Amino acid sequence: MSAVLSISGLTKRFGALLVTDDVSLDLKAGECHAVIGPNGAGKTTLIHQLSGTLKPDAGAIHFDGQEVTALSAYARARRGLGLTFQITSIIPGFSVLENVALAAQAKDGSSYRFFGSVARERRLNERAMAALELLGIEDRAQRLAGDLSHGEKRALELAVAIASQPKVLLLDEPMAGMGRKESAALIATLQSLKADYPLLLVEHDMDAVFALADRVSVLVYGKIIATGTPEEIRSNAEARAAYLGEEA
Amino acid sequence: MRNALPALFAFALFAAVPWLSEYWGGSYLTSLAMRAMILAIGAVSLDLLIGHGGMVSFGHAAFLGIGSYVAGIALTEGTTDLTTILALTVGIAALFALVTGVISLRTTGVSFIMITLAFGQMVFFTLSALSDYGGDDGLTLWDRATAFEEDTVLYFSILGALVASWFLITRIVGSRFGRVLRAAKQNEARVETLGYGVFGMRLTAYVIAGVMAAIAGVLLANQAEFVSPATAAWQRSGDLIIVVVLGGMGTRSGAVLGALAFVALEEGLSSLTHDWRLIFGPLLILIVLYAKGGLASLWERRV
After folding, report:
1. How many CB pairs under 8 A join A and B?
2. Pseudo-torsion of CA A44, A49, A55, A57, nearest 10°?
3. Domains in chain A: how many in total?
4. Of B182, B194, B204, Cβ closest to residue A106
5. Quick check: is A85 in a domain?
6. How many angstroms separate the CA of residue A138 from the nearest CA in chain B?
7. Residue B83 burial (CB < 10 Å; 0-12/13-18/19+)?
8. Which residue in B165, B175, B176 has the most chain A C-beta atoms within 10 A of its own C-beta, making it the best mutation to test that interface?
9. Span A11-18, mean pLDDT?
């Protein structure tokens, strides 16, 4: 299978600090590729370079057959690079439904329309409801997004990502701050999404990583020290020393 | 719909003023109402930026100044055709908004306030320097636009312009465009990563609001039969912000209510004392503190 997203030789420095050190990895259709690593390994920096909020110093990012290294965050999003944030990022003053409908609208023709009432656009609302149902929060549709619980906000954020009809999903620690029960529910949801949306998962939660990932890459001090199936990573001495050992 | 009621009530009140003035107040009352309506158009347009777009422009009066001077200069030079005057106004105001918007919208927050203030003052000083057209002292007009020769026509044209502006802004706020604008006010990064070009949409809103305020300026010149650089001064921009805050930012009826209240308070208090702002200031503070969301929120809460 060909790669939907591939990174080669990506390098980023903050002053003298090398935060991304010649990173190459790819994401194939239908798979979940997890990036794990200890705190400060440069996981979030990596995802910011993928989404376009940070520019790499060297290297190339190819997405859907085209080089996107020089494109802005919003140009990449338009091409179908969906992103959820590590810190929950929603529109707090909008209803849950409107949050998701806003995402659906981004992929549905021009937003330079000044007259028709957007709240009555059935196609957008239906698509938004479908995404909410997928995440199991459809009963919250009319609630103010800012009033949701933490877990519900994370689910809303995923619904937003899905409603924008991405070609891949970049998930930046989706389990962060969730309780065990909520995590388990989210793992099950992501499991069902995997077939339609290739997932690049940056995650601390090892249960989630080993339940979801087809391949795992271990990032340490900005460098990928191992890539393989979850089983291979479990038995890789270097990876265990760097990360799994600390976890256990 | 419920939230629109105060604005609709205000429009009905304005519509009744010419009739009322036959019993009380005469031309004093109608000119007061016209000033309030023109102020309301300026405030309605500014609220698109402040209340819905999160762009606190401190130079919005510049557009009123531009509109009134385009009208003033045209009328002085013998061009009394309203269509020509409006076309010129729209063109010049849109161009000015586009150029200053491209620069000021690169910033946000306090920097945006300061840059728009600077552009506003630039217009003020430019108008003051027009020595052929009165300079500092302003310019008395001997003619109105042909279409506005009748007082009643002028009055109801201003009312029509206010209702149209309010309706237009209400529609824009509820549209696809407005949704993105409102969302970007709360969380710009999120909106960008969804694939929206926030800069272009804010610039569009800035141009729309600027053109609308400039049209209010044309009406002001015809109503006052006088144009003055003071119209574009920062104090006037401040008044517009006060009107928006007083009425309730980002509400359906706030800007209209705010303008009505502002003019009523200004007239009422200044008849009591010369230093009416001494009373007006604390009053404004009380409203901001105890009626968050301005006058419009008092109504919305009660219903």
Report:
1. 89
2. 90
3. 2
4. B194
5. no
6. 21
7. exposed
8. B176
9. 91
Mean pLDDT over A20-34 rounds to 92
Which of B175, B190, B195 faces A115 most closely, judged by CB atoms?
B175
- Write down the H helix ranges in A83-135: 96-106, 122-135
Q: Give the domain-ending residue among A165, A189, A205.
A: A165
CB distance A77–B186 less than 8 Å?
A: no
- Contact criterion met (CB < 8 Å) for B179 and A118: yes
Domain limits for position A158: 92-165
DSSP-based three-state secondary structure for A10 = strand
Same domain flag for A209 and A248: yes
Q: Among B182, B190, B197, whose Cβ lies nearest the Cβ of A89?
A: B190
Q: Is B55 on the interface with A (CB under 8 A)?
A: no
**Residues 6+ away with beta carbon under 8 Å from B227:** B68, B69, B71, B72, B133, B134, B138, B139, B141, B220, B221
On the question of pLDDT at A241 being above 80, the answer is: no
Residues A161 and A173 occupy one common structural domain: no
State the Cα–Cα distance between residues B6 and B170, nearest whole angstrom: 14
Residue A85 has pLDDT above 90, yes or no: no
How many residues would you count in chain B? 303
Collapse the DSSP code of A117 into the 3-class scheme (helix H, G, I; strand E, B; otherwise coil) and give the result: coil
Contact of B186 with chain A, judged by CB distance below 8 Å, is answered with yes
Residue A5 · residue A24 · CB < 8 Å? no
* pLDDT band at residue B111 using 50, 70 and 90 as cut-offs: very high
Domain membership of residue B47 as a residue range: 2-302
Contact B174 A106 (CB under 8 A): no
The pLDDT tens digits for A181-232 are 888 888 888 888 888 889 999 988 888 888 899 999 999 889 999 899 998 8
Quick check: A118 and B175 CB within 8 A? yes
Instruction: Check whether residue A101 and residue A64 sit in a common domain.
Output: no
A74 and A175 assigned to the same domain: yes
Say if residue B289's pLDDT is above 90.
Answer: no
CA angle in degrees (0–180, nearest 5) for A48-A51-A54? 45
Which of A90, A112, A113 is the closest to B190 by Cβ?
Answer: A90
**Contact yes or no for B201 and A112 at CB 8 A:** yes
Q: What is the CATH number of the domain that holds A197?
A: 3.40.50.300
Nearest chain B Cα distance for residue A199, angstroms:
17
Nearest CB partner across the interface for A119, out of B174, B177, B180: B174
Determine, yes or no, domain membership for A87. Answer: no
- Domain holding B22: CATH number? 1.10.3470
Which of residues A147, A165, A183 is at a domain's end? A165
Domain count, chain B: 1
Whether residue A246 is found in the same domain as residue A174:
yes
For the segment B170-184, the average pLDDT, to the nearest whole number, is 97
* pLDDT tens string B184-237: 999 998 898 888 999 999 999 999 999 999 999 999 999 999 999 999 999 999
Q: Which of B191, B194, B208 to mutate to test the interface with A (most CBs of A within 10 A)?
A: B194
Q: Do A45 and A96 meet the contact criterion of CB atoms below 8 Å apart?
A: no
CB-CB contact of A239 with A233 (8 Å): yes
